[in-house]
Specification:
Keywords: Acyltransferase, Amino-acid biosynthesis, Arginine biosynthesis, Autocatalytic cleavage, Cytoplasm, Multifunctional enzyme, Transferase. The protein is of the alpha+beta class. A hairpin with a 2-residue loop joins strand 12 and strand 13.
Length: 405
């Protein structure tokens, strides 16, 4: 059950001018289940995207990168769930290309203007015929139906919307994402799509997407496994009357980037809140590191530790596990006597050992909560980072043991 995750209703999820959303049933995931999504973009737009760094990256990821490199513009995104089209060799690439060709014929564009995305089981052939047969039958829907159609082991659809008013002009943002297991940077199996009617120059949008991903989708971990299919895409349709944003010096740049980052973080945290078998949402807040990279390194070590995560599941203040993870994080010159560790507001460790005023009862009270923050003060500098994770439960094992059953 997702941890304190509220699903927006239809009225709260905003339509974006220049974007049409379609959903259909291809029978890839299971019969009579929405598992095919087609998003059609009207007119000229800008695209920014970042993808998994897994060397076994899926065929659709490879094709999407190739199509983006043609610089011919993007007119459609096509997404299937139930099959990742990963570990499928040359046939997988040909299948992804074929689906792009069929979408292009259907909407009237070039195949290179279609970006394919897949999510689901790895190392199984993509049932192309089912997808191609379903494409002409897709129906116009609103974002909640699309968010549900891209789910795999997710228990709830993930959506976020924002409106910001700048100089009397409203700019809208809507994003959907999927992910529940196989979640770990880089990137955190997840797919994330955000759409805005802002007018943003492509080079700047690409830079924004990479920076925003760093504090959102690349700051989450459920199980320490980096997927073959991870993709985060932002589309700017340019339909707002607000002027074009083409540099960091543009007066509206900071506002637009802040809202985009807020939407991405909400979606990323929703993935952790809906982590497979999760019962707790945990923030690892690392402060006073020498560099942000160092802070993230320590945060990840704690966040992905099975021993730490199972302790949280059991509400067991076995907090030596956190110290252990900090110690093996790989910071060679770490002065453990200077570190302070807090569980919520409770000081747990300082001066290389247990805090003198710490009590098991105080730790137990925090561990019993369903949202917990672990603060680690390294006392080395001014950099900081937050990593978001969840506990590791028996249900996680059951979900993944039965995934293909």
């Amino acid at each position: 059950m997702a941890v304190n995750l509220t699903v927006p209703n239809d009225r709260q999820v905003l339509a974006i001018d220049g974007v049409q959303v379609f959903v259909g049933q291809a029978g890839v995931k299971k019969p009579e289940h929405d598992d095919l999504t087609l998003i059609v973009l009207n007119g000229v737009n800008s695209i920014g995207a970042v993808f998994t760094q897994n060397r076994f990256c899926a065929a659709p990821v490879q094709i999407a990168k190739q199509h983006l490199a043609t610089d011919t513009g993007v007119r459609a995104l096509v997404i299937n769930t139930g099959n990742a089209n990963a570990g499928t060799g040359r046939q997988g690439l040909a299948d992804a290309e074929f689906i792009c060709e069929k979408v292009a014929q259907q909407i009237g564009c070039a195949a290179a203007q279609v970006l394919p995305f897949s999510t689901g089981v790895i190392l199984e052939p993509l049932p192309v015929d089912r997808i191609v047969t379903a494409l002409p039958k897709v129906k116009v829907v609103h974002w909640p139906q699309a968010a549900a159609a891209i789910m795999t082991t997710d228990t709830v659809p993930k959506m976020a919307s924002r409106t910001v008013s700048i100089d009397g002009h409203k700019v809208h943002f809507t994003g959907i994402a999927k992910g529940s297991g196989m979640i770990h940077p880089n990137m955190a199996t997840m797919l994330g799509f955000v759409f805005t009617d802002a007018d943003i120059a492509q080079p700047l949008l690409q830079q924004m997407v990479a920076e925003v991903a760093n504090t959102s989708f690349n700051a989450i971990t459920v199980d320490g496994d980096t997927s073959t299919n991870d993709s985060f895409v932002v589309v700017a349709t340019g339909k707002t009357e607000l002027g074009r944003i083409d540099s960091e010096a543009s007066k509206d740049y900071a506002v637009i980037k802040t809202v985009l980052a807020d939407v991405a973080l909400e979606l990323a945290q929703a993935i952790v809140r809906d982590g497979e078998g999760a019962s707790k949402f945990i923030t690892i807040d690392v402060r006073h590191a020498l560099t942000e990279a160092e802070a993230r390194q320590v945060g990840y070590a704690v966040a992905r530790s099975p021993l730490v995560k199972t302790a949280f599941y059991a509400s067991d203040p076995n907090l030596g596990r956190i110290l252990c993870a900090i110690g093996y994080a790989g910071i060679a010159d770490l002065d453990v006597s200077a570190i302070k560790v807090y569980l919520g507001d409770v000081l747990v460790a300082e001066k290389g050992g247990r805090a003198s005023n710490y009590t098991e009862e105080a730790g137990q009270q925090v561990m019993a909560q369903d949202e917990i923050t672990v603060t680690i003060d390294l006392a080395r500098g001014e950099a900081q980072a937050k990593i978001y994770t969840c506990d590791l439960s028996k249900e996680y094992v059951a979900i993944n043991a039965d995934y293909r059953s």
